[in-house]
Amino acid sequence: MTTITETTVAPTRLSWLTPNLLGVALLLLLGYGLVPWIGSDYLMDAVLTPFLALALAAIGLNVLTGYAGQVSLGSAAFLAVGAYAAYNLNLRLPSLPLLADIVLAGAIAAAVGIVFGLPSLRLRGFYLAVSTLAAQFFVQWALTKFGWFSNDNASGVIDAPVIRIGSLSFTSATGRYVFSLSIVAVATALTARLLASQIGRNFIAVRDHEVAAKVIGVPLLRTKLLAFGISSFLIGVAGVLWAFAYLRTVEPAGFNLDRSFQILFIIIIGGLASLRGAFIGAAFIVVFPLLLSRLGAALLGSVFDSGVLEMSQRIVIGALIIAFLIAEPRGLVALIDRAVAAARRLRSSQS
Amino acid sequence: MLLSALTTSLDVLALETWAPGTARQVLDTEPAAAPGAQVSGGPRAVLRLANISLSFGGLTALRDVDLDVAEGEIRAVIGPNGAGKSSLLNVVSGLYRPDQGEVWFGDHAFRQVPTAQLARLGVARTFQNLALFNGLSAFDNVLIGLAHRVHTGFIRQLVGSPAARRIEAENRAAAEEVIGFLHLQEVRDRIAGSLPYGLQKRVELARALVARPKLLLLDEPFAGVTLSGKQELAQHVRGARDRYGTTIVLIEHDIGIVMGLSDHIAVLDYGRKIADGPPAEIKTNQAVIDAYLGVAHEDETELAI
Fold it and tell me: What residues in chain B have their Cβ under 8 A from chain A's Cβ atoms?
């Protein structure tokens, strides 16, 4: 037995030194060491914090749709469940630390996700996507209808509490950014670990060939519900970040179908079944409107008002979705990989 | 925790739905019902089909098919297109429920084989049109053939508990062994979907073999493979039997390749078994020749009824 363990542990130790891991370490160093010191409040508050929350939600959806092959249009509902669950836990159980609130909010979102994942046992593809819309509409309706969820606010609006862990409080833009970064980094690392285990292989097996997976002994029911659960957990935690760290005042209408589509677009543009893709796609979705408005203002001047911006944004993103689905279903991450490979080839042929 | 507890209990529910009615011990209920039951001293039947009939609407796919497959033999089931070969394999693997008849694995009889329990019963199969997991590497495809042995929940896999690590290490060692046995080392890290057809077939064979099944069902393993590839694959199939003692049932419509490979050949035509015996006997069997050449024989009207 010891020999077996030794032979298999050795290569995993070596694989720790991949360029991937170096890249991640570098990004974390940048994110913790550089950005908080030189970044403006605007950058952290309006760009990086929503980017992190959306990236985490996209990771959640990618687990479900990219890896396990179950299409969902209900992501915003699970964001809302996470946000409102954390708000209520914080309000009604004040003795619980905030981190526990966040984990429990994720667990509640997971439970709701599993319930709405039950149709996946019978439905597939388009039909499943439509059935997940039920989650989208039901959750938004319930949060508006029952005042209890928003502590009897007339329009369902909640004001997020200050993020406080022990004696540390994260009130400034920098603090909320660092808090989000930490949560996202830990959640991403855990997800990557899970996807590399048998669970991750089971997800892909169910996605690629359900009958073969069943014959081999992959438990279909458990695997699909686990995908819904883990996915909703991550999206729920992202919802907490969205509400507590980014907006700080949220209403159910903020978690509408548009938000669900936005997260779906992130993983289509970024790259399905790729954790990097979720980050790249989220970065694109957050940065793109800013670039477009700057560009439009520079080129067209005062004609390019917010209405035109909104419209042109939708047109360009719609065109991009079509282009990616046809030309590169694996998304931006595949384009980047190919560019890197081409650059390497060029360099090696020159030297 | 909440999650794993919830999903596990649901899974248990799913198990219970098939368990009571379908699986029975031979001694409990039908001691005399096994036709051609174990001959004393003879090899045990690993697979026995008793009186299997299957129809889709008005179309009869299988009619009163009996089949006994002894331990360690390579049994070919041949027949022209549409003879019911694939239906037979799908009945054995539980994808179809026969209208009547039973499938026996050793001492277990099933009306409908529980597909999800197939691997645990020691049965593995391949598919006619490749059924690899295209997004996984060749190695991971083989490794997942042991999915049924991973009984640690997702929390334990996430934190890497000793049990989860031990199972993972054992499974990886088993997968490496089969990869080596089928000479797939060079492509082990390539994405399965990017491999040439012949290699994909071999990866699928490796995936089926990694769990060391007692019974291996091969659905047209030679279809679409080049002539040299066929001979190579035939060697691997025989090697699998010799090395692991696996009983093999293979479906094929190319009569040539199975003659040299199989110990026994059963012939299906229009859903009926028209012959069953060693290759030499099948070669000269008039009903088989007629079925393949389509000669209008005096008996054919009788056979077709």
Answer: 2-3, 6-8, 10-11, 14, 93, 95, 115-120, 124-125, 127, 131-136, 140, 143-145, 147-148, 150, 154, 157-158, 160, 164-166, 168-170, 172-173, 207
Question: Which one-letter DSSP state was computed for residue A269?
Answer: H
List the strands of the sheet with B247-252, edge to edge: B123-125, B215-219, B247-252, B74-78, B264-269, B272-277
Q: Would you list the domain boundaries of chain A?
A: 39-350
**Inter-CA distances, A53 with A24, A184, A316, B260, Å:** 18, 8, 23, 63
Q: What is the pLDDT of residues A207-239, one digit of tens each?
A: 999 999 999 999 999 999 999 999 999 999 999
CA distance B240 to B250: 13
Distance CA B93, CA A286 (A): 50
DSSP character for A278? H
**What does the alpha-carbon distance between residue A78 and residue B4 come to, in Å, rounded to a whole number?**
19
DSSP category for residue B146: G
Residues of B within 8 A of A63 (CB-CB) are: none
CATH class of the A39-350 domain in this structure: mainly alpha
Distance from the first to the final alpha carbon of chain A: 47
ipTM score assigned to the predicted complex: 0.84
